[in-house]
Amino acid sequence: MSCPAVAQEVWFISDSTRPPLGSYVPARVINLDAAQRIEAELAATLPGDPSEAERIARLRLREGGTALQRRLQAAYQGVTDAWSLGVATVPAVVVDQRYVVYGESHVDKALARIDRYRREHP
Known about the structure:
- By secondary structure, this protein is of the alpha+beta class.
- The protein has one domain (10-120).
- It contains 3 helices and 4 strands; from the N terminus they run E-E-H-H-E-E-H.
- It has a 4-stranded mixed β-sheet, sandwiched between helices.
- The longest helix has 36 residues, at 50-85.
- The model has no long low-confidence stretch (mean pLDDT 92).
């Protein structure tokens, strides 16, 4: 299925355990647990000594450079965007930041529901 002609932007909001399904590729995939996963990578195997743990964490942050900064920024921006839309349940398919289908990982099916709703409620 292709995206309905009236849809300008499709987002899939979920977590890493529930990826988008179907043939339609959303413009944006937001994994709400992305920031936690990145932070877990940074904290993995840190020693118990607080000073040494801090030194290693700073080193990891420095070595990650701008790529790590971009990953963290994108992860937190996704959470902010989902929160600002009022997304309360995942997975969620959001069209044009206006229509939302909750509980459906299959993007094609969610788009069909939104398209049907739009036709029935012009």
